[in-house]
Write a structure and sequence with these properties.
CATH class: Mainly Beta
CATH architecture: Beta Barrel
Structural class: mainly beta
Number of strands: 44
Protein name: Iron complex outermembrane receptor protein
Number of domains: 1
CATH topology: Maltoporin, Chain A
Strand content: over 45%
GO cellular component, one term: cell outer membrane
Keywords: Cell outer membrane, Ion transport, Iron, Iron transport, Membrane, Receptor, Signal, TonB box, Transmembrane, Transmembrane beta strand, Transport
Domain TonB-dependent receptor plug: 55-164
Family: Belongs to the TonB-dependent receptor family.
Length: 822
């Protein structure tokens, strides 16, 4: 029996596979005139180009991660998946504020806005998921995950500029089969998964799968005496397959997942000096509030790895997502017609502590929203000896409704207003801001349609030319209204501008009423061109150029203010991104196809890059979209894997990514420059010293030449597994020992890179050991085995006070897993 090994990770266009699968890929292909054989019949098939082929045949950078590898390494959602794919970056402060980027590109780093598109598309069984909240849910009965890097617009329904994550679930079978898995660990970690599949008749088969995950939180809140940032996931997926003959099939699918954890809180990380007056910086503000309220304690700990916080507002991350789809496949002569119809919903119910402290500055912050999306894709695939092509039509409609509430607390006057010794001054009267409430109502309507296609022309047995094109139309319209009431429940107006020093002036400095209704539409024509050449049977070289785009955006969270404190309505819409992408790659196999080495190099240039910016206020605007003039990402990706024997396999992969703002002259200032006004307009900010004047205006800085946030220049993954055959309790199988790990160099966690939000590089190591045989697997595991302290992300607290909050990464965890299948 061929041993089952750890599935291997890839970076530059290879797959994560078991030795038995590798043997299948390593064998000469049918095109070489030799029959392929495999003891288990396992074959890794990718559909990145909307047809079945092995990963080494695909002339683009792609990683394929099989479902059992995901389970073995404990990477149970897209957020965790980045530990196996170094060029994938996923950062989350809560399910809604999740960034999924590839090569540093995808979505703006920071607060999420509904008004822009995703640069990395997430597809589940060909259905596009428009919100990255889907990335935080457990993988549910997943067969494999394909991570495609680079623009994907001529083969996929929804255009994406940075790549796509293509998730394929296990499908209904006409043979009865099932599987069950149970995991327990420290921190009260529990995870259970089960799936069953089989025939209902000669032409109908069904499959149902469930998964549940729970874990105690990793942060302790001294205010509520509770652990927070817990895991609480539940999901179910059902599928019904109707297949009357080999040429026609209909698959109906439905899924529902929910999360209801007490999440997502932060800890104190550090304080940085800003250019504001010393009395308006964090330590002085806390001292002033303490002086006014003797006996109150606000500092749970100043060491983030004590994992203590003192947040005083309610926390919740209620999250529901699901939908139904119908996929029809009809083989028509040399081609296949596919129709994918889908409806999906997303229901988000958050509660946050937006001042990141135990102070009652912002006493309530919540922006629940509800989304409905509808999509329809028609696709025709044609294959022949010389010509293959894919042509498709895609339509998408979406509506998002949001109802936001943000309220000021009893400590807000000391935090937000200038100090004064006058007892009548608003600074000394908490009731001026306490209870001040901004109620936001907004909606977004989004419609898009596209015609896309790609041709593959086999000029010779070795040379193939692949041009592709896309015609796209997008329309977005939104509405935003903010009503402000004081602590007595009275609606306030800030027009005309109130006199300085009055209660109303203080209130309008925190929240201002606003109404906006941005709307825009755009057509885009884009294309790509790929040339690939089979240098030898086991060497494939390719080169790609793609002219791509990310469609227009609109600002849905309120608009920024001009210097005279009027609303900047010109910021209501954001220009489309214009993308030029270049890539070359080499895919090789050697040592009788038991070893693979792949290499790719890329350069992506984006004009009018859509970035999230924030002026630092609490409620004047939560964050808005703006265009950075030019961004560039370039780098090299390489990977190596080897199946030395049935006993030993290993992999190592790495990536170098250099992603920069080439030109961004109107960016928000980082905290060390906030409050500065003395730098001339033609100067470059000096980021090396805190407190050095560097702002071009009170709100904007030139950050041209700075690194993009969230990107490590160096990232590596590695793994190995060794097994020996044994007979244990009359069961034949293998005892195995495995290790996997990853490293990321330092990166910055603020949209405008700051010396205070630099995240140190770190390396994580995981071990597992167990015994497996036919139909079962029992193993123990330890993750972050050396209990490395590291930061998942940092956030600049609102108000420009210098406070930096963050979320520590998971500590050492350990447990055991048992799996059965039949």
């Amino acid at each position: 029996m061929i041993a089952r090994f750890l599935l291997l990770a890839s970076v530059a266009g290879t797959s994560i596979i078991t030795p038995s699968v590798f043997a299948q890929e390593a064998a000469p292909s049918a095109a070489d005139g030799v029959e392929q054989t495999n003891a288990r019949g396992d074959v890794i098939i990718v559909t990145a180009r909307r047809r079945q082929e092995t990963a080494q045949e695909v002339p683009l950078a792609i990683s394929v991660i099989r479902g059992d590898s995901i389970e073995a390494t404990g990477n149970f959602n897209v957020v965790k998946l980045q530990q196996l794919a170094p060029t994938l970056q996923v950062y989350t402060t809560n399910p809604r504020n999740t960034s999924v980027n590839i090569r540093g590109l995808g979505v703006p780093f920071g607060l999420t806005s509904d008004g822009f598109e995703q640069g990395v598309g997430i597809y589940v069984d060909d259905v596009y998921n428009s919100r990255v909240a889907a990335a935080t849910f457990d993988f549910l009965d997943v067969a494999q995950v394909e991570v495609l890097r680079g623009p994907q617009g001529t083969l996929y329904g929804k255009n994406t500029t940075a790549g796509a994550i293509n998730i394929t679930t296990n499908q209904p079978t006409f043979d009865f089969e099932g599987r069950a898995e149970l995991t327990v660990g420290n921190l009260n970690y529990k995870q259970a998964k089960a799936a069953i599949s089989g025939p209902l008749s000669d032409t109908v088969a069904a499959r149902i799968a469930v998964a549940a995950t729970s874990r105690r939180g990793t942060l302790y809140n001294t205010t509520t005496d509770r652990w927070i940032n817990e895991q609480d996931n539940l999901g179910i997926r059902g599928q019904l397959l109707f297949k009357p003959n080999e040429n026609f099939s209909v698959t109906l699918s439905g899924d529902y997942s929910k999360q209801d954890p007490e999440c997502c809180g932060t800890v104190f990380v550090r304080v940085g000096r800003t250019q504001r007056a010393l009395t308006r910086q964090y330590d002085a503000l806390v001292d002033a509030i303490n002086a006014a309220n003797p006996g109150r304690n606000y500092a749970a700990s100043r060491n983030p790895y004590d994992r203590l916080t003192d947040l005083d507002s309610s926390l919740s991350a209620g999250n529901k997502i699901g939908g139904v789809s119908a996929k029809v496949k009809w083989d028509i002569g040399p081609g296949t017609l596919t129709s994918v119809t889908a409806w999906r919903f997303w229901d988000w119910k958050p509660e946050n502590d937006r001042d990141f402290t135990g102070l009652s500055v912002v006493s309530k912050s919540q922006n629940p929203s509800q989304q409905d999306q509808y999509s329809q894709e028609f696709r025709y695939n044609y294959e022949s000896q010389k010509i293959d092509f894919v042509v498709g039509l895609f339509g998408f409609k979406q509506r998002i409704d949001t109802q936001g509430t943000e309220q000021q607390g009893a400590d807000a006057v000391k935090w937000s207003l200038a100090p004064s010794t006058d007892p009548a001054n608003p600074y000394n009267r908490p009731e001026v801001l306490a209870g001040l409430t901004a109620t936001n109502t907004q909606y977004l309507k989004s419609t898009s349609a596209a015609l896309f296609g790609q041709l593959s022309w086999k000029v010779t047995d070795a040379l193939t030319i692949q041009p592709g094109a896309r015609l796209n139309y997008d329309k977005k319209s939104g509405f935003y209204e903010r009503i402000v009431t004081n602590g007595a429940g009275q609606v306030i107006s800030c027009t005309p501008a109130p006199a300085s020093g009055t209660d109303l002036a203080a209130q309008c400095g925190v929240y201002q009423p606003q109404v906006s209704a941005p709307s825009d539409s755009a057509w885009n024509f884009t294309y790509d061109f790929n040339v690939n050449y089979k240098v030898a049977r086991d060497i494939l070289a390719y080169a790609t150029y793609a002219k791509s785009f990310k469609t227009l955006g609109i600002n849905q969270n309120g608009l920024p203010l001009n210097a005279d404190n009027t609303v900047n309505y010109d910021a209501g819409t954001v220009k489309p991104e214009s993308v030029n992408h270049f890539e070359v790659g080499l895919k090789t196999q050697f040592w009788d196809r038991r070893a693979t080495f792949n290499l790719s190099a890329f350069r992506t240039e984006i004009k009018n890059f859509q970035a999230t910016v924030n002026g630092g206020q609490f409620g004047t605007v939560r964050g808005y979209l703006a265009n950075a003039e030019k961004v560039r990402s370039q780098g090299i990706e390489a990977d190596f894997k080897v199946v030395a024997s049935e006993r030993f396999t290993a992999y190592a992969n790495g990536a170098y990514t250099d992603a920069k703002y080439k030109k961004f002259t109107n960016a928000p200032c980082p905290p060390e420059l906030s409050g500065g006004t003395s730098q001339p307009a033609d100067a470059t900010p000096d980021y090396s010293q805190p407190g050095v004047p560097g702002a071009l205006s009170p709100r904007q800085c030139d950050i041209s030449g700075q690194d993009l946030p969230g990107v490590s220049k160096w990232a590596f993954s590695y793994g190995a597994e060794y097994n020996i055959p044994v007979t244990l309790l009359a069961k034949e199988g293998q005892v195995y020992l495995g290790v996997d790990g990853n490293y990321r160099s330092h990166w910055n966690s603020n949209a405008s890179p700051s010396i205070y939000t630099e995240v140190k590089g770190y390396a994580l190591t995981n071990f597992r050991a167990g015994f497996r045989g036919e139909g079962f697997d029992l193993f123990g595991w330890v993750r972050n085995a050396f209990d490395v302290n590291y930061i998942d992300n940092l956030q600049v607290a609102p108000g420009n006070t210098g406070l930096i909050a963050g979320t520590p990464g998971d500590p050492r965890t350990w447990g055991g897993t048992i799996k059965f299948s039949f």
